[in-house]
TrEMBL record:
<keyword id="KW-0472">Membrane</keyword>
<feature type="transmembrane region" description="Helical">
    <location>
        <begin position="235"/>
        <end position="255"/>
    </location>
</feature>
<feature type="transmembrane region" description="Helical">
    <location>
        <begin position="207"/>
        <end position="229"/>
    </location>
</feature>
<keyword id="KW-0812">Transmembrane</keyword>
<feature type="transmembrane region" description="Helical">
    <location>
        <begin position="114"/>
        <end position="132"/>
    </location>
</feature>
<protein>
    <recommendedName>
        <fullName>DUF3147 family protein</fullName>
    </recommendedName>
</protein>
<feature type="transmembrane region" description="Helical">
    <location>
        <begin position="90"/>
        <end position="108"/>
    </location>
</feature>
<feature type="transmembrane region" description="Helical">
    <location>
        <begin position="33"/>
        <end position="53"/>
    </location>
</feature>
<feature type="transmembrane region" description="Helical">
    <location>
        <begin position="6"/>
        <end position="26"/>
    </location>
</feature>
<feature type="transmembrane region" description="Helical">
    <location>
        <begin position="152"/>
        <end position="170"/>
    </location>
</feature>
<feature type="transmembrane region" description="Helical">
    <location>
        <begin position="176"/>
        <end position="195"/>
    </location>
</feature>
<keyword id="KW-1133">Transmembrane helix</keyword>
<feature type="transmembrane region" description="Helical">
    <location>
        <begin position="59"/>
        <end position="83"/>
    </location>
</feature>
Length: 260
């Protein structure tokens, strides 16, 4: 029982902390900064830690192929939500985005994936989603909102319910490409739920439309883990992969500051 509860608690705590903090940042700093935080491997990072504790480096390395594919699908997920959230309800926008995610993952089962093919998929998907999402990006901050302890607790509860639901569903699915479900967009979906209900669909959609470029950094980090997990060890690979992803986001922030 402990072996089951501790990983779940870790995923809940990490995801809830980051998602709640990111939603506050969006309300105070704007969609671009929020997208940098939304692209961080919150629930996925916790799942990777659990994966490393339960499996050898070779398994972790191979699971990164599925994770890179899932990362590209997440870019499509965010774009679908961004397009629909302009004028539709949260249920329609997010439900449709998750529907597209599941259809894409189901279709991915029929491809004999290698890392080269996963990287090629990313090289096609990310430019297309970045271009398609340009009309949904807005500049500036959302309206100022006074936050209370009740607000933050409510957000944490939303994320907790989402994480528990996804974890239970993943356990019943079985071993279908572990790496794909490591990066099921539970944190991103929770993020959109909070923002859509608090600041409206267009602002939440702007975060979704900004997130594709930061997700490139996450993909590069996953590729780093794939390359280094066996020769350098899983924990070194994780550390360097995280540095790559964070370094990409820092670079994006510096470029934006320079343009300003």
């Amino acid at each position: 029982m402990t072996a089951l509860l501790v990983p779940l608690l870790l995923k809940v705590l990490l995801t809830a902390a980051i998602v709640v903090a990111a939603s506050v940042v969006v309300e105070r700093s704007g969609p671009f900064i929020g997208s940098l935080i939304a692209s961080l491997p919150t629930a996925g990072g916790a799942a990777l830690i659990i994966l490393a504790l339960e499996h050898p480096p070779s398994f972790v390395a191979q699971s990164m192929i599925g994770s890179v594919v899932a990362n590209a699908v997440c870019a499509v997920f965010a774009l679908v939500y961004a397009a629909l959230a302009q004028r539709n309800s949260l249920a329609v926008s997010l439900g449709s985005a998750y529907g597209v995610w599941f259809l894409a993952v189901y279709a991915a089962r029929f491809v004999d994936w290698t890392m080269a093919r996963a990287v090629l998929l990313s090289a096609i998907v990310f430019p297309l989603t970045i271009i398609a999402g340009r009309h949904f990006r807005v500049v500036g901050t959302a309206k100022r909102i006074s936050l209370t302890a009740k607000d933050l607790a409510g957000r944490a509860i939303v994320v907790t319910v989402c994480v528990i639901t996804v974890t239970a569903a993943a356990a019943s699915i079985g071993s279908f490409v572990s790496g794909i479900f490591v990066f099921f967009p539970v944190a991103m979906g929770s993020f959109f739920i909070i923002l859509h209900t608090r600041v409206g669909g267009p602002i939440a959609a702007s975060v979704a439309a900004h997130v594709q470029v930061p997700l490139i950094g996450l993909g590069l980090g996953l590729l780093t883990v794939y390359l280094l997990a066996e020769p350098a060890g899983v924990w070194w690979a994780y550390g360097l992969g995280l540095c790559v992803g964070l370094g990409w986001n820092v670079m994006l922030w510096l470029v934006r500051q320079r343009r300003r």
